[in-house]
Amino acid sequence: MADAWRSYSGAPEPGTAICALDDVPNDDTLCIALDGFPIILVRRNDAVRAFVNACPHQYLPLNHRGDRLISADKTVLRCTSHGAGFAADTGEGVEGLGIGQCLDPIPVRVNRLMVLIGATP
Questions:
Q1: Interstrand relation of 37-44 and 28-34 (parallel, antiparallel or unpaired)
Q2: The pLDDT of residue 88
């Protein structure tokens, strides 16, 4: 479900600023709690994707045991608790306990070098 992220407690409103684009390292991730709402940001150049930071296997944050989430080839996000792997561009489960699961995507956009919730201006 594309809007599943809205069902989480504390889901921010569209248009809410998350952080500056420069806060998200290129070809890497940034885990942030926005007023308690857990978000994973994945950046490739100026393209940013976001997911709820909750592994669908046990709903622990993917960075529960460390902040190195992205694979060496930058294509897989890995849960640090039990190794479930998810495609960095779609959140679809691709390895281990991630297969058949999916991270909940959050629509984001970059506006004036800020990353914002929501796909509409």
A1: antiparallel
A2: 96
Cα–Cα nearest to 44, from 73, 76, 74: 74
CA-CA-CA-CA dihedral for 9, 13, 14, 17, to nearest 10: -100
Segment 23-34, tens digit of pLDDT: 999 999 999 999
What per-residue confidence (pLDDT) applies to 1? 57
Give the domains, in start order, of the chain with CATH numbers.
4-112 (2.102.10.10)
Count how many Cα atoms sit within 13 Å of the Cα of residue 32 in the half-sphere of its side chain.
16
Which residues of the chain form beta strands (DSSP E)?
17-20, 28-34, 37-44, 47-52, 76-78, 85-87, 93-95, 105-106, 108-111, 114-117
pTM of the model: 0.93
| Mean pLDDT on 66-93 | 94
**Distance, C-alpha 45 to centroid of its chain:** 16
Q: How far apart are CA 85 and CA 80, in angstroms?
A: 10
What value does the mean pLDDT of the chain take?
92
